Each structure stands twice: as structure tokens, then as C-alpha cells.
């Protein structure tokens, strides 16, 4: 929860600044940012990793191939600014990159596309972290800006570029863009599977040993679903833009791939909705079960209590001190009373059994 | 539930692979896959059944007629790959066929249509299995890929082809495609009727002998409805594409048939929604009934208990050991007290009756 | 409910048949079907009633006027087949006529329109029966197929044709079609008024004497509303097609009439929704009332029980057999204890009154 | 409620009549209808009031100005018929005027517009009456038909016409129509404010002295909101037609005014929705409060009862008649027992306090 | 709440007035209104502050630059009238400015745009005030009318104009308009953060020490969300108009900025919806927790009470006065009974423990 708390609070510090002000909004980090550059075409590949932006940036841009610049840690505002100025990006784009509380979206700036997504990472106990990934797709360059520096889900893509596996080296930035988005959407399934595992666990717990913590787990998972929907829902609309292929940066050949991720996104949403419905049903079931169980206990106890009421009354009667109480004098009075009480108890048990109250 | 559990978990093993990687995602099976081929035109019919794809595949494709290739068991990835390469299908199509967690959908690849549906099969106790059926409709061929190998709902269609019943032999792949989809949608009605039967059962149980298991049955049926909606809902959109007939593979003559299945799909959805509403009403009714019944019992017991309270108090009074208690000395004291207690009890019963508490 | 049960179950017997198979799906009936024909134009009128279709059917079709053929009882599949072949209707149309579980819909077949509606009939206790009415509207003929044979709501229309009241004799099949649909939609208001009456009854019952059967009545009415919505909701869309007048069979002059029935349909839906909202509110109110009333009783009883607790304790104290208990020896001990107990009881009553618990 | 009851029941008496039949459907009234005519242009004004339609109607129509004919009491079907025939209105229009259960709507008949609205009037105790107002807007005439005869909300408009205040005398029927609709929509705010006042009252009652009648008041207000939505919701769509100005009867100059009423209608809907949300929240709060309060009482009583249980047991022990009970013989036994009981009680009170149960 | 109460009640006082009547509707204020004027272009800047509108207004309008006239306090209707007449605004615009219960909206009057928004201001305890801000954007002037006079959120914009920071001095009224709307939408985040803080607080309270006031706090926050949605929801639609840039007053260069605020507005709505979902979950959790806790206590008490029932019965038995009760004569009878009672109690405790009732 502490993360959420922070997440719900940061934005207003920028109130009153002119648009395009580069102020980092997000979790504070002490670690240094990292820049890595991969430039490739069908035949050649060059890789660099550097902590700061110096003068040699232009040299690595391959005019006929693709240059992918990946920045880990947007809290280092200077790197973002340097890159922004080098490529002449719009100030609002730069602002959105460092302001890491954006919703997923896509914006078409003519010469380049600006895409914002959320990179989800499963954490202990059904929790997941949500970091912003901003992407700028130009004709021969692609920039990715990651909020965090704890690694990403792109290693497989890098490997494919390096080993020239698949068509990735032969195609342009739009295919690279697809590969990266695909990697992110694929990683959503891990989060979903983690969540699904917990939901199935809680469901079993619900059947076998429902307790107070079951309620809290259901409630916790429902909250996770709320946050997950928020991260994923707007993505569908954004990817539908890519699928339509309205921008000249998107070749027709990759449209079918974007349709594929669109499909995956819809599947993610579908699963999220199913989880939500399942959790709602589980909450109902939990509440009814608990109430049923409670009722059963109370009924049992009340019924048992009921059996003792007339017995206690009877022994009270023969504890009275009236001078003239013939039964007390009778030699078998005590035994007779026990007989009466036993018959009475059995009769009541039979009656309650018949009524299905016991 | 174990199936569901698996169903919720498989997808991520493919993370990081390039698009078009043929990895089977779904239930593991030990049985061998089966291929069956039916090639026909208005006058001729040829049938073959083979366990592997060899060289003689091309020969059976009838350029003027229709060739229907049915694959049972997509876990044998090699068969899918061989067919895919033979017909030059897009890698993403091949990938979706072996990845059996797709949503129902239709995709137009120009030269062929790719259709994914769910084949539902009623199982014991209102449960149903859900297997993926992928279909590729080309100008003179139609391929169906079934996830499972336990038989399908197409026997009636095969019989019609063999006996040349109806117009099926005279028409092209679009009519065959219609016949197959129709068979699947028809089979949904069996699942619905099975479910409906259970719902009516549970409703009767609810009226006659509601118990804890009633709650679990309602809850179970609600869960079934959630999964059923998920399998059926996207189908409507897909079939609406076929009804519109935007592809050149669909002749105008079959449009009216597609409108018919569209209608059926809407009816399926309608019934699913009605079931959902009925189950929601049943849950409400169950909870209110149980709570009502519980309340009645508690009220009865409390009211009866209330009658004994003053009586027990009274016998307590005359069990006291005060030296000077005139009533105790009175010869008829004991009988008088009984009279008082009987009158008091009857008065209380009358009072509670009047108040409608008893 | 038995009807519903059947209604939820029939469809699958047709699985595997080719499209256009004429198999009656619906309630079984022993009675013979009836055919009645009315042929008219502005000046002439001819009426016939016959139990079977023979050869003289063509002769009665009036090429310049309107021929209305009404079939009561579609379980006689042969009649439907004969008419279908005579007019060359599409096999799917014939199939939908005898398969009486269709949703309301309209289909434009170019030369004729095919309309399916539900004919509702109030029955005892807020229940209503729902029978399928299929209608085929051609340039100079109109066919109606009724599921049942217990009479219909068209008598007023027939009377208007016979007496040439209104414009009906002067206008074509589209106006006749309007008149028939209007009669059906008008009859929905009877069902609604019947339901409304019951809802108002239950509401009064809820205020005056809520009991267990109140809950069941509300629940029953809610179920009726679910089925009513299902019969009426799709009609709106169908009639909106007629209002738009896209078919050449619909003259501009009748469009304003179709707008009128569209209006009525919307009113029907509106009323159904209002009923649903009212019933939802009534269920909430019932549950809260019952729970409130229960709570009041339990509180009363518990509070009264509370008064006896210290009294019973006190008389217990003086029932002890200690050798040395000075109070027991005191001559006024017994009376003093009574005084104490009375004061204590009154004090507790006052306390509970003040707390508003009594 | 009696009004509602009637309102829910009238419609079916017209079943089977041909379209355009003039049968009054609505509350029966004994009072005579009233006709009032105002004819004006920028310079002249003529006013008449008459109980019946005679021959002089045409003379008062001002071909260059505006003639507003207002009929109060549509139960006098003859007046409606006479006017309808004079202006040659469509029979369906006439029918809708006397059938006072229409939804708000607008219909464009080319030469004139037909508008139906609901005139709401606050009544005692948050109730409101809902009467139908039909309006026909022609090129130089405007007819209004009011269901009731208890006065209307148009006095201010009449006054403006008489005193030539604002632009009303200079503009045509579309501006008059606007002024009348505006007056009606403005009157909705009175109803809303009345309702709002009651909602705020009930909210205060809920905080200070919630009781059974609070529940009934909330439930009553919810029902009012259901009826209010039904009267207002369809109006938005109708006024949006006027705002779009598709008819030649609407000049461009008045479009901005219609946008203004559209705005007001949206505000009305907005407020209705807010009320609905507030009432839903209040119902939740009421139920939780009542249940909380009940629980507190029951807990208190049970805890107190718990203290007496061991005490009563103890005094029971020393009321036994065993021969050999050393404590009874001890001189200070009685006092010692009191000491034990007091310590025990205090201990239990402390324990329950610590557990926050007391 | 008192503010809300007023807010729900004012509107009807204007019923019957002609359109364009300038009557202030809103909170009454004693303070004088204030007018401040800033006229600037890229090179020059002039500022004035005046309490009344005199003759020198025209002189300050800079035909080539931008003149921003800000009015604080629209209760001074004369100022609004003077400005309206000077610029020839439509009477309905003037009316909406002084009638401070408008929904957010945008209206295009050709020569100028009229925009209404709500200025939210956090107040003590999660409350916020909501004041109307009306804005009129012309080709070279921009007027803002604030309902209140307690300062605004525009100081940062003023500072940017004065210091010529950013592009604001170089661009026209559309950019100024953007800057002002941006400042308002930014201020919504403060309100949201304030609310979020309270929601997190209440959530912690819910986990640690849930009590009656928790319920009231949740209910209060839900009410705040209802009002917040009402203020923000319509804004999205209005800003989407600006983003589309349909008016000639909006240059293409600023469209990207409007897209930015559109984004922010969607984020605001998103957060509001998330809050709503969280609060709904919290209410559920609260109710279940309270009910769970209550049940635990009642169960504990009932179970403990159950242990004393047989014990009290037993001591009652040996308190009876039968002549012939052998146990009483037995020398160890008393001790034996104690032994029996202790064993019985322990047995019951063990039984209840096993059943998980204790």
C-alpha cells in the first residue's frame, strides 16, 4: 500500500509551471540512469552503453537502419532533455516522459509517434509494480524511456536482434515497436497468471477453511484488479490506433502484427473482467457462507439452551420451601422427577429434530 | 475446477519468443493427432484419413471442388507446421492455432479467412469443456483444427456431404464453413439446455429444501455462466463480419445463412443473459429465505424462553430461606403458585400470539 | 414454471439437420390447425376458412387487392410447407416459422419481409403465455402463422376489414401489417396492466402485512419481468427497421403509423423498466422491513430478559443455605427484598426507556 | 399512490380501435374544458377565452402574426376534434393528445411539429403530479393542449406577450414555443428543489433520529425519482432535435435558445441522477446504522447477561442441600461468597472493557 | 452540508423571467467585486485593477495583442452587464455568467467561445468548495468571471505573462485560454490528492480501529465523490471540443496543448472512478468486518453461556427438597458433584474447541 499512497499524491507539485517543464514526478531513486544504444540494419549491428549523453550520439544513428536508444531511469531529467533537444521533440512529450503518472496513450506528432504504456512486474503476494514506459517511434530511430532501472522485459527482443532471429533485422522501426509492445503485453499475462493463482488459492481457502483473512484476501485482490484495469484498459484504444495504421510511420506489412497485439490486449481485458466477476462471486459466497455457518451455530446453541429451560424450571419448583408439597414427601419423588425430565428432554430433542432445527 | 486452474496459467511460457513461434499452449495430451480429408464437388467424393502429413497432400486438393482437411489434436505441432507451409499461411495464424487460449474471432487475410471458435461439450454436473476450433477458409479448401481428439459435432455435416443431402455438395467453401459454424452454434444449445435443466433443478430445490449445498450450486452455476459468456460473447461480433459479407470469399447466396447463425448466436447470448438474471434472483431469494427461516426459529425460541423467565424467577422466590415468609406456611400456597404460574404462562402465550410473535 | 422448463429445453433435437429442415419445435398440440383467408380490395371482400391446403389457393389471391392468409397452429408442418412452396419462400423462413423459439426480428428478403413477434396473453396470477407469431409481408399477400390455436388479438382488425372501417380497405399490405402489429403491441399493454395491478397489490401487502409469501411474490414478479423483457426488447429494433422504411414494400404514407407503434414499443419497454426498478425497490424495502421488525422483537425480548437476570440472582442468594445469613433472620427481610426487587425492576425499565431500547 | 395505480392501468380500453380513434385516456374530470386564444404581432394583440369551438375560430388567426390557442382539459374530446379538423392535423396526433399517457417526444409532420411534454407540479410531501402537455407548432399558429385545468406555468409568458417585454412579440412561433418549453423546464427545477429539500431533511433525520419511518421516506423518495426520470429522460432527446434545427419551422436565430433549454434539461437529468446516487448512499447508510445500533445493544445486553451467569451458578451451588458442605458451616461463608462474587464481577467487567465489548 | 443545501435550492427564483435576465443565482456575498485587466503583446505589458467599469475600458484593449479582463465576484451584476454590452455578448451568455449553477460546458458563438468550468478548492476535512468560472474567448480579448473573490489559481499564469516566461506572450488568446484551463485542471489534482489522502487514512482506520465513525467517513467521502464527478465529468466533453479545434479562434499550433489538457481531464476522471471503486470496496469490507466481529463476540458469549447451563441445572437438582435424595446424604456427594461439574465443563470446552466455536 505505501506505493499506492505515494502514487496517489505526487502530481500537484507541478501546478503553475508552464507546459513543457521538465520536472520528474514519480518515485525518487538514488541510482544513476543508464543509456544503451543498439543500431542495426539487415547486415550490421552496433551496441553501446553509456551513463551520460555526450557528443557522439549522432554518429550512431544509422540513416538506413534502425537505432534504438533505451533510457533506464527518467529521474535523470538531463538525459531526457538532451535527447529531446537532439531530436527536436515537442516539450509536452518530454514533460510526459518524466511525469510518470500518465495513462497509457498514443499521440501522433506527424514525424514521430509518442506511446505511453505501463510495465507491470509481479511482486510478492499478488502485488505488482507498475512503471511507466514511454516510447518515441520515428522513421529510423526508436527511443524507450523506462521509469525504473531494475531491468526490463526486452531481453528476448535484444537477443533476437543480436542473433538476427526472425525478421526483426530486416524490418523497420514499426516492427521493432511492435516487438517491444508485444513483449510488454506478454508480460501482462505473467501478472495475470500470478493473480489467477492467488484467486484459485483463495477460492480453495473459501471452500475449505474460510476465515477472517479470507475476506481480507478477497478484498485485497479486488483492489489489485482495480489498479490493473486502470493500467490496461486505456491501452486497448491506443493499440487500436496502431492497428488502423493511420500514420505513415506504420507500414502495411506490420498491421497484421498490431492486430495480433490488439487481440492479446483484448484477452488481457477479458481475463481481468473474468477475475473481477469471479471475485465478486467469491465475496458473495464468503459472506453467505460465514453468515450461514454463524446461523447454524447460534441455532444449535439456542436449541440446546432451550432444552435446559424447562428442566431448570422443574428443579426450581422442587427447591421451593412450601410447607405442604406432597411430591417432596413421596419416597420415589426424586426418581420420578428424573424420569419426567429425561422423557421431556428426549421429547424436545425429537421435536427439534423433526423440525430440522438440530 | 482443475481444468480452469490450468486454463488460467499457461500463457507466459511463450514470453520472449518471436511472433509465429509454434509452441503448443493448452492441455497436454498423449494421444496421437488425426488428419481426415474430404474432397468433393457436386458429382465426386473422396475421403482419406491419415496420421501424418506426407507428400500426397497436394493431389487430393480438388481445384474445382472443395477440400476439407480436419486435424484433431493441435498438440502435434508438426502437422500444423506442414499444413501451414503447404498453404503459405501467415505465421501468426499458425501460432494462434496451436495456442489454444484464443478468444473467438475472425481475421481476414485476403486470400483466406481465419476463424477461431470454442467448441463446448457438456460434461457431468452442469460442467462443460471448452476446446478451441480454428478454421481457415480459402477459395477451394477449408481447414479445421480441433484442440481435442474426442470427436466433434461435425458428423451430421459429414453425413450430408456423403449422402449429398441438401445443397452442400453444390456449393463452395463458404457454405461448408456455414454448415460447420452452424453445427457448433447448435451444439451450444445443448450446453444451454443442460445448464437450464440444472437451473430449474436448483430453483425447485430452493423452494422445497434449501440447504447449504443450494448456495454452492447457485454459486457454481454462476461461475459456469461467467465462463460460458466468455466463450460465446465475442462470437457475435465475428459472425456479424461474416453476415456483412465483406470478403470476396463469401458469396451473396450464403449471406442469408450467416444471418441465420447470427440470429442463433444472439439467441444463445440472450439465454445466457436470462440465466444470469435468473441465478441472480435465485441467490437473492436463497439468502432472504435462509435469513427469514433463521429469524423465525430464533424468534420462536426466544419467545418460548421468555415464558420460562418469570416462572423460574417465581420458583426461585419460594426457594428462599427467609424465616418469615407467610406464603410458605399457607396450606394451599404450593397449589396457588402453580395456578398463578399457569395463568401467567397462558397470558404470555396469548400476548405473544396477539403480537404475531408466536 | 412447467412451461418455462419446456421452453428452456427443446432446441437441440434439431442438431445436425441441414438448414431449412421443417421440424416443429414447441409445445405439442393435439388440435388440428386452421387456415383462414381474407382477400379484399377497396370494393370487394372474400372470406374462406379451411382445414387443409388444397388446389384452390391461387384463385383467392387478388392481384390488385390484399390477400391475408392466417394459419393457426404451426405444429401442422405440412400446411407451412405447402404455403412456403406455393410462394417460394426461403427454406430458412419456413424453418423459423415452425421453430417457435425465435426472438422477435425482421428480415428483408427483397420480395417479402419476414417478421417474428411474440403474442403475449395474460393468464391467472400475473403469469402470461408467450406464443410466436410469424408474418410474411409480400406485395399483395400477407401471411400470419400463429403458434397456438386459442384465438388471437386480430378480431378487431378483421372487423375493420369487413365493415370497411377506417382506411384499411383502401391501403395495401403494409397498412394491414401495421394494423396487425399494432394489435399485438396494444395487447402487451393488457399484460403490463395485469402485471402492474399485481405489483401494486404486492406493494400494499408489503406495507400492511408483509410475510414470507410477499417475498415469493416479489421474486415471482421479477422473474416475469425477466421473461417479458426478453419477449419485448428485440422488438424495438425490428420496428425501428419498419419505421425507417428501407424496403420498397413499405410506402411512405404508412411510415408515420410505424413511428406510432415504435412509440408504443418504447412505452412498453419504459413501463417494463419502471416495473423492474419498482420491484427492486420493493425487495430492498421488504428485506429491510423484515430485518427491522425482527430486530425490534429480539431487542424487546432481550431487554425484558435482562430485567429478570438480577432478580433471579437475588432470589438465588437468599435460597442459599449458609448457617450465618443475618438477612434471613430479620423479620421483614422477605418484604424488604421484594421492595428492593421492585425498585430495581422499575429502575431498569426507566433506564431502558431512556435509552430508547424499550 | 392511488394516482399511480390509475396511471398504470388505463391504456388497454382502446385495444382494437382503428388508429386515430379519439378516446380520452387519463384521469376522469367533471370540470368543463377551457379554450383561450392569444393572437399577436409586433404591434397588435387580441385575447379571447371561450368554452366551446364555434365558427369564429378562423377569424382570429393572424396570418402575419402568431396565434396561440391554449386548451385546458383534453377530456373534452370534441374540442380536440374540432381543432384537429380545422387545421387538418394527422389523426395520430389527435389521438396522442387525448391519450394522456405519452412519453415526452417530438414528431416532425412537415407542416407542423408535434411536441409532447410532461408538466410537473409539486404537491404535498415531495409528491408531484404529472400532466401531459401537447403542443403543435405551425408556421403562424401554436396550439397547446393541457391535460388538467388547474392552471399552468405559462402566466409569465402571457404577461410578457401582453406587456411586449423581451423580444417575444417580434419573433415567430418558434420563439413562443421556446418560451413555453422554457417555462415548463424551469418549473421542473421547483419540483427538484422540493425533492432536494426532502432529501436533505431525510439526511438530517438519518443522522439524528433514524427510525422506521426514515426507511419508508427514503424508499418513497426513491420511487419519486423513478417516476421523475421517466418524465424527464426522453425530453432530452426531443429537445436535442429542436437544437439541431432540422425543421424549416425553426429559424437559426432561435437555435441558441434551444441550446439553452437543452442545457437546462441536461442539468435537470444531472440533478435527478445526483439525487438517485445520494438516496442510494442514504439507504446503505441507514441500513448499516440500524444494524450497527442493534448490534451495539445486543452486545451490551449479552455482555451484561454474561456477568450474571457465574454469579447465579455460585448462589445455586450454595443453595444445595448436601449434608456435608463445609463452607455452609463456616461463620463468614456468606460474606466470603459476596466478596468472591464482587471480585468476579469486577474482573469480568474489566475483561470486557479491555476487549472493547462493553 | 449547509452549502450543498443552498446549492440544491436556488434556481426557481428566476422562473418566468424572459431569457437573458441578469439575476445573480448563487451564494450571497457582501464583499465588493474586483476587476483586473492585463493587456500584453510580445513586447509590451499593461496592468490595471479597478473596482468599477468606467469609460476607459476600450483604451486598454490592445488590437494586436491580448487583453485579459478578470472579474472576481459575479454577484455585482452591473459589471457583468457593462462588459456584456461593451462586447455585445449574447444575453444568454450574460445570464449564464451570473447564474452560478451551470454545468461545465463550451458554446461556440462564432465570434467568441463561451466556456464554463468549476473551480474547486480543497477545504478542511476532505470537503471542497466549487465555484463557477466563466470564460469568454474572443480574437484579441479573453474575459474570466469568477464566482468568488477569495483568489484564484491563475497567479502562476499572471507571473508567466509578467516575466514573459514560456511562449505565452508570443501567442494569442487561445494559448492564454489553454493556460488558464490548464491551471484549473491542475488544481483538480490537489483536490484529488487531498481526497486520496483521506481515503488512505480511512482505509488504515478500517484495518486498525473500525468504528461507527468509519462508516460515516466512508459515506461522507462517497458523497464528495458524487459531487466531484458532477463537476468534472461534463468537462471532458467540453475540452474535447477544443481539442478538435473546430472554431477559427483556435489555431492549429495550440491543438496539441488542448490534447494535453484533455489527457489530464481523462486522468482526473480515471482517478475519481478509481476512488469510487475503492470506496465501494471499503464499504463492503467495513460492513463485513463489523458483522464478522460482532458474530465472533456473540458466538463467544453464547458458547460460554452454554457451559453454565448444565452446571446451573445440576446445582438446581441438588437444591431440591425431596425427602429421599440419597446423594445428599452421601458424605462426599458435594465433592463428587464438583468433580462432575469440572469434568463436564472441560469436556464442553474441548468439544467447542474442536468445533472451532471457541
From TrEMBL, chains A, B, C, D, E:
It holds the Pfam family CorA. The chain crosses the membrane at residues 300-320, 332-352. The keyword DNA damage does not apply. It comes from the Bacteria. It is found in: Cell membrane; Membrane. Keywords: Cell membrane, Ion transport, Magnesium, Membrane, Transmembrane, Transmembrane helix, Transport. It is a multi-pass membrane protein. Mediates influx of magnesium ions. Belongs to the CorA metal ion transporter (MIT) (TC 1.A.35) family. This is Magnesium transport protein CorA. It comes from Pelotalea chapellei.
Amino acid at each position: 500500500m505505501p506505493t499506492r499512497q505515494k502514487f496517489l499524491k505526487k502530481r500537484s507539485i507541478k501546478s503553475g509551471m508552464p507546459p513543457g517543464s521538465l520536472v520528474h514526478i514519480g518515485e525518487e531513486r538514488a541510482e544513476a540512469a543508464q543509456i544503451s544504444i543498439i543500431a542495426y540494419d539487415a547486415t550490421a549491428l552496433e551496441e553501446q552503453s553509456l551513463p551520460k549523453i555526450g557528443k557522439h550520439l549522432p554518429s550512431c544513428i544509422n540513416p538506413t537502419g534502425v537505432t534504438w536508444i533505451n533510457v533506464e531511469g527518467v529521474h535523470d531529467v538531463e538525459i531526457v532533455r538532451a535527447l529531446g533537444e537532439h531530436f527536436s521533440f515537442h516539450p509536452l512529450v518530454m514533460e510526459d516522459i518524466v511525469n510518470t503518472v500518465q495513462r497509457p496513450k498514443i499521440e501522433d506528432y506527424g514525424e514521430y509517434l509518442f506511446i505511453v504504456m505501463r510495465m507491470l512486474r509481479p511482486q510478492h503476494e499478488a502485488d505488482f509494480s507498475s512503471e511507466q514506459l514511454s516510447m518515441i517511434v520515428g522513421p529510423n530511430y526508436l527511443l524507450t524511456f523506462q521509469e525504473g532501472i531494475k531491468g526490463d522485459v526486452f531481453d528476448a527482443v535484444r537477443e533476437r536482434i543480436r542473433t538476427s532471429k526472425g525478421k526483426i533485422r530486416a524490418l523497420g522501426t514499426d516492427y521493432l515497436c511492435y516487438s517491444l509492445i508485444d513483449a510488454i503485453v506478454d508480460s501482462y499475462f505473467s501478472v495475470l497468471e500470478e493473480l489467477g493463482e492467488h484467486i484459485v488459492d483463495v477460492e480453495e481457502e473459501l471452500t475449505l477453511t474460510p476465515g477472517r483473512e479470507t475476506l481480507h484476501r478477497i478484498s485485497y485482490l479486488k483492489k489489485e484488479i482495480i489498479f490493473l484495469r486502470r493500467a490496461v484498459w486505456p491501452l486497448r484504444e491506443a493499440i487500436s490506433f496502431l492497428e488502423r495504421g493511420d500514420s505513415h510511420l506504420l507500414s502495411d506489412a506490420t498491421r497484421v502484427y498490431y492486430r495480433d497485439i490488439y487481440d492479446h490486449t483484448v484477452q488481457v481485458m477479458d481475463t481481468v473482467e473474468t477475475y473481477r466477476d469471479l471475485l465478486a462471486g467469491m465475496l458473495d459466497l464468503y459472506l453467505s457462507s460465514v453468515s450461514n455457518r454463524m446461523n447454524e451455530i447460534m441455532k444449535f446453541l439456542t436449541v440446546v439452551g432451550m432444552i435446559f429451560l424447562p428442566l431448570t424450571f422443574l428443579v426450581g419448583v422442587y427447591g421451593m420451601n412450601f410447607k405442604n408439597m406432597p411430591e417432596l414427601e413421596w419416597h420415589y419423588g426424586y426418581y420420578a422427577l428424573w424420569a419426567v425430565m429425561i422423557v421431556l428432554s428426549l421429547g424436545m430433542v425429537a421435536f427439534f429434530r423433526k423440525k430440522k432445527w438440530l
